[in-house]
Specification:
about 400 residues; alpha+beta; binds flavin-adenine dinucleotide
């Protein structure tokens, strides 16, 4: 394993540092989603022009058109993270739908949707989960019946992040109700302003109905052209799984920079007048977390080396998703414990630390242990497919069921 990047890549790094300095006045202030939409689109456009966003997306679909190069990606992430600037937008459209369309979309779908999605002209939400279909997603019941050149959609989705803000949804519907469970599902692109769509917000444990909003969405005779199906009709399960691979990859936020932030906090916060970092109990927890962060970093380098050699990723995506989501939550938990009674403050109190970063990070990372496939499901897959352990016993069927 070679841990040096080499001169060509170091020159690329210098170019990024110079870009970030030159455009410092245009950088997003604080959180990228706090920017007005037009400004956000302008920032993304600037990034695309310089090749720091949509870098490998072909020019004809509105990208920069560079050849894939994982080391360049790593260096871009390192430098943007170091500068505390968002390199693009980790939303469902760019991180999940666009790569799926590149693999499975029709030429027309690619030309219509990729360019505006990468510029935040369209925000997307993911219509997968239903009240009876979460981990067992293939049980979904939302139906689409044919009506001339259209489908009519009826049913309900739940836990739909950002459905209240999105202009578009990629949705899984059952087009062939008599087909076997994993067959007869279609993957459809649906404008959210179509009549018959009712979005109802759900309050989360953070009391939040805003930025990280959850919703349930009801569909009554929602008309969508049949040409909005991605891939073959009835073959949506394979396409849904392609999106899930990209979703897992987007949930791999490295905990290293958060750990460094935690160390800063532990130097500043005191317990009985002594910095928290000097407390043997907190220090012990910090050391354990640091060990896990370093292990994940080494694992990422191994995954990167495999990728560069063109070796198949196997189950690494499941391992990264499982470990990183839990690790991010555990780092936030230590920060909250270190703050003592201030750690439980949430609602914009003047005693809050770092604008409630740690509380928000804790709730979000706890959610990500569930979203995109729960930890238990990741463990089942790693155990069964990776380690070859016996399959989980299915509950016995009762007579007549
Ligand atoms: C932050 C967040 C964002 C989300 N965003 C979206 C979104 O935008 N769009 C969308 O469609 N969905 C979204 N979801 C929903 C998410 O995909 C589901 O919550 C998840 O798939 C689990 O489904 P469920 O909630 O129905 O739980 P269930 O499937 O009912 O599971 C309940 C519990 O049982 C366990 N369990 C279930 N089956 C097994 C098994 N076979 N073996 C062992 N344990 C099992 C689960 O691990 C879990 O602990 C989001 C969820 C979260 C938390």
């Amino acid at each position: 394993m070679d841990l040096e990047y080499g001169e060509r890549y170091e020159a690329f790094r210098r170019q990024i540092v110079a870009f970030l300095w030159q455009y410092r006045s245009k950088r997003p202030p604080g959180h990228i989603y706090d920017m007005p939409r037009a400004e956000l689109s302008g920032w993304l456009e600037l990034l695309i022009e310089h090749g720091y966003w949509a870098r490998t997306i072909p020019k004809e679909y509105g990208g920069f058109g560079a050849a894939p190069d994982l080391l360049e990606t790593v260096i871009m992430d390192e430098e943007f993270n170091r500068a505390g600037v968002a390199r693009g937008m980790m939303a469902q459209g760019p991180s999940m739908l666009v790569p799926t369309l590149l693999e499975h979309g029709s030429e027309e779908q690619k030309r219509t949707w990729i360019k505006p999605t990468m510029r935040a002209e369209f925000l997307w939400c993911q219509g997968y989960s239903e009240p009876g279909a979460g981990s067992d997603l293939a049980s979904l019941q939302t139906r689409a019946t044919e009506d001339g050149d259209d489908f009519l959609i009826n049913g309900q989705k739940i836990w739909t992040s950002s459905a209240d803000k999105a202009e578009m949804m990629f949705i899984l519907v059952r087009t062939e109700p008599d087909a076997p469970k994993h067959g007869g599902i279609s993957y459809v692109l649906l404008p959210m302003d179509t009549p018959g769509i009712d979005v109802q917000p759900l309050r989360t444990m953070s009391g939040d109905l805003g930025e990280n909003s959850f919703n349930q969405v009801f569909f009554t005779d929602v008309r969508v052209p049949r040409t909005n199906v991605v891939g073959q009709r009835g073959n949506g399960w394979a396409i849904a799984n392609a999106t899930l691979v990209h979703e897992r990859n987007s949930l791999n936020a490295n905990a290293e920079s958060t750990l460094l932030r935690l160390i800063r906090l532990m130097k500043n916060e005191t317990v009985n007048g002594v910095p928290a970092i000097a407390s043997p109990v907190f220090r012990d927890r910090l050391m354990r977390l640091q060990g896990r962060v370093l292990a994940m970093k080494a694992h990422s380098m191994r995954v990167l080396t495999n990728n560069l050699k063109g070796e198949p990723p196997g189950l690494t995506g499941f391992v990264v998703k499982l470990q990183n989501c839990q690790l991010n939550f555990d780092v936030a938990s230590l920060a909250i414990d270190v703050m003592g009674e201030l750690g439980v403050l949430y609602d914009h109190s003047k005693y809050e630390r770092e604008h409630a970063f740690w509380q928000t990070h804790s709730f979000l990372s706890l959610g990500f242990i569930i979203g995109g496939g729960t930890a238990q499901i990741q463990k089942n897959i790693i155990a069964e497919r990776g380690l070859g352990l016996p399959r989980e016993p299915k509950p016995a069927k009762t007579a007549g069921a």
